[in-house]
Amino acid sequence: MSECKLAILGITGSIGSQTVQVAQHLGCDIVAASAGRRIEKLQALKDTLGIGVIYSPYGNFDRKAFEEAVYSADAIMVATSDVSEMPFVLKLLEDGKRVAIATKEMLVLGHDLFAPYRWKNLYPVDSEHATVYMLMKPYISLVKEVYLTASGGAFRDLSLNEIDNLSPKDALKHPVWSMGYKITVDSATLANKGIELLEARVLFDIPPSKLKAVMHREVIVHAMVVLHDNFTLMGAYKPSMLLPIQFSLTYPDLKESLLKPISWHGQTLHFEDIPTDKYGMYKLAIDVLNTDDKKLYMLYLIADDIVVERYMKEEIRFSQMPWLAEKIIDTLSENNIPYQPEERIFWYRQMKERAKEVAI
């Protein structure tokens, strides 16, 4: 039996699968795991990995036994595809458990509810946010600016007119990362970078005016933190989620990772401004960020889901996505987020349904 015990909420997705790799590398036992509708895969993982207790809301599983197993873990990875586990995750944090959260919607929807655990037992998983955490942690009160980097996605070398004449399938040809279709499209529109800035505002309580993003084709530097004396810290490693995942589960204990070091001989780095006239979804995200209205942050995520779906069905062009997203946000902006976690989940689902109606 290993001394290291992990629980993975959302084990069948991309982050969940890579967390399994990290767990095996670290020699950790997976004592609990959950999934959505992919129950057969969940059961297969239980058999092959020797997972203690599994759970899905779509099957006949013992929820109480699952929660007890999660509580026995040293660290919990939250990589679910929805927000339904938010009340349980908040309870874990309240009880002092170490929780790593990869679910963007949960972080933004729960923004103020997660604030008490900032810099304590809540850890980010995204490569950019994990990097910011490590760079900022010793200098929380001394930060002047924070920069996130963007690869530019599949369309970084094309004009807006050229992009509009391409198939949405071309958006899935990311030059660096291998990811799910939704986040790959978000990378092509740079909505993902906008969402990451919204997350950074929530995670680190950094004023919007101090949050920036730049294009960085090499995807070697994942984030930069500028201190008050203008000393700039850069977090650099090969593009992989394995290191950020390990960080979120083990920091400040820095163990040998699965990642090979960068060879700096002959390495060049480029940083460019993001052209907002081309990346309208990114520009809209910046406008939303600067309102500092967390309700609008959440509506941006909802609107992005809808426009990506419409785009992939070839119902709208790339250049029309920002217009439709803004229409959704404006139409739903009078609907305030309630306080209780369960009420927030209901609000979120209600807004998603209403957003679909607005987008027709």
Question: What attributes characterize this protein structure?
Answer:
15 helices; globular; four-stranded mixed β-sheet; six-stranded parallel β-sheet; Rossmann fold; 2 domains; alpha/beta; 360 residues
Count, helices:
15
Task: Please give the radius of gyration in angstroms.
Answer: 20 Å
| Sheet with the most strands: spatial strand order | 3-2-1-4-5-6
Biggest sheet details? 6 strands, parallel
The ordered H/E elements are EHEHEHEHEHHEHEHHHEEEHHHHH
Beta strand count: 10
SS-derived structural category: alpha/beta
Mean pLDDT over the residues: 94
* Cα end-to-end separation: 54 Å
Given as residue ranges, the uncertain stretches (5+ residues, pLDDT < 50) are: none
Estimate the strand proportion.
Answer: 5-15%
Q: Please, how many domains? A: 2
What does this structure look like?
With 360 residues, the chain is an alpha/beta fold. It has two domains: 5-124, 3-Layer(aba) Sandwich (Rossmann fold), CATH 3.40.50; 131-240 and 260-358, no CATH class. The chain is 44% helix and 14% strand. It is built from 15 helices and ten strands. The strands form two sheets. The chain has a six-stranded parallel sheet with strand order 3-2-1-4-5-6, sandwiched between helices. A four-stranded mixed sheet has the order 8-7-9-10, covered by helices on one side. Helix 10 (191-204) packs antiparallel against helix 13 (294-312). The longest helix is centred in the last third of the chain and has 19 residues, at 294-312. It is globular.
